[in-house]
Protein 1
Amino acid sequence: MEFSHLGLVNVALALRFRQPGWPDCLLSGGYLLHAVGVKIRLPDARIVHPDILASSPSRGIGLLIEVKSGPNLDHDQLGRMRSVSPTELREHAYIQVNDPDTFKIGVLYLCNTVHSDSIEKAVDGQATVLGFDGRKFQLAGCQLPDDELAKALTNASVASDHQPLGIVPFDDESTDSEVATHVVPAVVAALVRGEGQLSVDGILHETHRLCCDVMQSTGAGSELRGIRRKASFVLRTAATEDFSPWLKQVERQPIYRFRKALSADRAQRTRELKSLQKLGRSLFERLGGDVQLHLALPDLDEGDE
Amino acid sequence: MLQPIENRRDLARHLQAQMEASRYSVAHELDDEAEGKNSVKTYLLEAHTVEKAGDDPVEILSQLGKTLGFQTAATGDQDLVTLRDGDHDFWCDTSLKRYWRLHAMAPVKLADKLTDRLVSGTTRLDRVWLAPNYLENLSKVLGGRLQTFSLRHDRRKMRADEDEYNELDFVSMRLWSSRAHETLGKLRKAAVFPHGMSVRSVQVRREIDDHPSEYAVAEFFQDGKVTASGTSFDLHSDSLLLILTDYRKVVTAIEDRFGIGVEPHGPRGKGATLTGEPFTIEIKWTTPSLEYTVGKIFSSVEPFRLWGIPQKVGPDHFRARAVDLHVGAMLTFDITPKHVVIQLPRGACGNTIVRFLSALQYHLNSDVADDLYTSGVGPWNSRTLAS
């Protein structure tokens, strides 16, 4: 099984949470997740941009995790990550480093197992490579600074057909249809709460509520900008097409107003909500999604309202 | 002539008189229609924004009154609000902040209807959902005697009509017995209704030690309704307090442990770290088609009242970003043949999880999360994952 960049990010994040059928190697190692897709500006104008920054204060280890869905690698990025010191992580990434002299930093490339060999060659012993095939993890490259974590990863296995949780729901490489899968419920949630208008940032805060704060830049930029662009496009399309009876963009502003509220009458409200489900499905299809993946929802039974 | 009710003490006296007046009618209430007809009714409600966003209960009720057409009036007690709907008065005791007790003497159908309008008229109010096994053990929790119980379990709406289905489809029964607790135990042991022992209500008699003439007979329903008669409002009030204390513990434990989100971390608190964990429910599905059942769960209607467009992300794995229509919150559900995994955002209302569990327990499998109250949430979830 091969994963996209987003899929692999969620694979790494899933190791930090308890989930049936998934190993929790990072959680059991006391690892904390600090940043996802956030750039860290270091002295000398160096910028490192790991996909995930994690640390285990109890083990005194920091991990810069870079996700590679393909076989290629940015050597400059590798060099910059290798140059990061514990003190710099403490001062510029704001993570807890109790003793900079003993604190160890590892650079870990997570990739699809089919690309492990080429990534291993490219890192040339300067980083650890972790291949994943949907069931097992395979370590290569230089040794991880955390022996226990290395052992746990080598022994870990994922139960058949188990997908990682979607902690990060979509990224700037996601298809428009995938983005709509998350944006549309956020629009409906605002409607249910009786909000008169919504903003792109508000929607993003809702779709990425679990991880939004760890994706926020502290000044050097983050992937959130690209994700915002994606959400903005989908929202605009929704307002001009399928959701136009409900949603209208305020001219030249990233703000949308609801044209009407949900009915106070319970039966009518249920019919409106069912209609919004149909609109959502048609929007996914318009944006090129495979509508077969979305379940056809049962029709209303008598007395369902 | 009715004295004006200016505070909770006045209310207690007033409700006690009604409890005493109604005690002779209880024995005749043998059918659902008559449940609590003349008794004092108390509805346990949850108002999560009172603690989370500092909302004012009086303001919430006053706004609802304008929308739903009832009047509200403050009393001399800031935690007690009077509601007048037509000819009937209701009193909302908000002294526990997040958990409200709405008392009524109105006919049960009218009182049920107003409560239904209240919780469906705003995203800021929900019911307190008592689990079947909690109700089953409630007489022990309260130190009283179980007098009667009712069961209600209905899977019919969770499967397609054309499905061939030979399992238990629905149960509805009410039993009066001098040994109700034993009877309930025997029914469970004999597995007469496999995964369908959804206790809908229990009637418990409590007495004050050495003063058997001081008593309260109350029927507690799974949706937080309580009907009471007897000679001691204090005992009734004490029961409500014990239940709400247990309930608060469960909801708070869910929010504290399972809310996923970011906490400050690192030097000067300038860093951040992702905390919390997904809430995992182990379940044996009782319907023939998981796909159909998942579609029903997210179809916006009762009992789940979740809006979503579920996706198939694996051969037997469905994922839905869903809107909880009670509170307007968005959650992610991962559903497989053995589990439901819910990502509850930090700060979201834990009552959503309890309500979801309740819908599972009364419409799919009564044994789901059967140790939610006894385990304090934590060990239950770990055990589930370890298995």
Protein 2
Amino acid sequence: MLTSIKRILKTGFSDFWRNRWVSQATIGVMIITLFVIVSFFMLGGVMNNVVDDLKSRMDISVYFKIDTDEDNILKIREDLTDLNQIKDIEYISRSDALARFKDRHQNDPLILQSLEEIGSNPLTASLNIQASDPTTDFPFINQFLDKNYDSVIDKVNYQENKEIIDRVTTFSGATKRAGIVLSLILITIVILVTFNTIRLTIYSVRDEIGIMRLVGASNSYIRGPFIVEGVIYGVIATVISTFVCWAVFKGLSPRLASMLLDFNLYDHFTQNILYIVSLQIAIGITLGGLGSYIAIRRYLKI
Amino acid sequence: MIVFDNVSKIYNSCGVLDCINLKIAPQEFVSFVGRSGAGKSTLVKMLIGELTPTKGRILVDEIDVSKIKSKLMPFYRRKIGIVFQDFKLLNFRTAYENIAFAMEVADLPRKRIKEDAMKILKIIGLENRKDHFPTQLSGGEKQRVAIGRAIALKPEILIADEPTGNLDPIHTWDIINLLVKINELGTTVILASHDRDIINSLGKRVVSLENGKIVRDEEDGKFIV
């Protein structure tokens, strides 16, 4: 048994070496497959980043009645901070609001002039709230405010923002689904191409497989070296594909950063390197080993 | 003992072999002769389990060959050596490795394989070409390697299906002499051939086939068309 395993391993390696011209084609196709899969993984990271970025920019503002005490507002802020749903709260006092307003409209003399004519500060204090997950948390926060502090609140701009929030939610869901469907289709295609290449490799040695059967080799003894060869394809393809990805993402990262909302492709790659390599190894070995196992089956019937 | 008991083979409703009854004793040298299409190869293929008879049975040492399960077929085939007209060598393995392969599949220890393979290479006269691949060998040399592989496991039966069909006259006699030598060492040899000169000079048992039937079966037979 042990000698058999040793022989199968040895034969697998030597067959791989002697068939290296045929092997190159299979490994080449496999590298493309793995590269496509890793690229989809990276694309997933980019999409998540875009959606996260959009979500982090979403907030609601709570405007208090003009005569509300600052202490009272700060207390409300404290109460809100205790909620799990809240990621960040910023208090903007009446004077802050005025300063910002002036700053924003510094080039608009008409507005500044009307502000001066009013004489007093017409702006109200507000709390600017960011939620952990805008889609689910904002409705809750809105309700919470409504229930507890209705008397001091002038207005919450939740309704206006709701439409944008809903749109982002739909968008992120749709891109996720489209991404999954598209990547599944493409990955299926590249896997089928790889499998077909392996089938051609086995087809080219079908006569030898028949000979082995006629000389008295058992099916497992014939199959063994081919599976070993397939696994070697997978391992080599993983090594090369990882290196290619590393080089590509390192090169592209600085060039694409501004386009991808400062998302660093190269960092995303290196941070997930263990996962990426294991994913590739798993797919490569399964494709190579299982592919050979299935492809060889029909020639073992003599 | 090999027994063909009423064996018929029909391909797509066209009969190739018709009621073959035949007994071959251990250590015999039997030639199957006949024109192409007479059914020689079909007979050989059924004997090695590559084809199953449509009717009748083939017994080798009282085992019905067509009843051997696919999983156990390798064990049966290790008991018989087979030589083909087109050599059927493994092209990615050297002469030595082709011979060793037959012993490796039987799980023999490495040391013994090395010793036996070298002995066989000596018998077939290819010691100095042991590291050559089949593509680097001549037709006669390839066939000698094939015979070396066939006798590697010291089979009780050696089947040669047109072993000289692709060879020139000089190499042909090399191969035939090798088969006679193997038979003298105690192996049953079954030779399928349509080469009249060889059969007539062998002076062994000849079974003549014509249109799927045995028309003659003689000790010290001749090939008469």
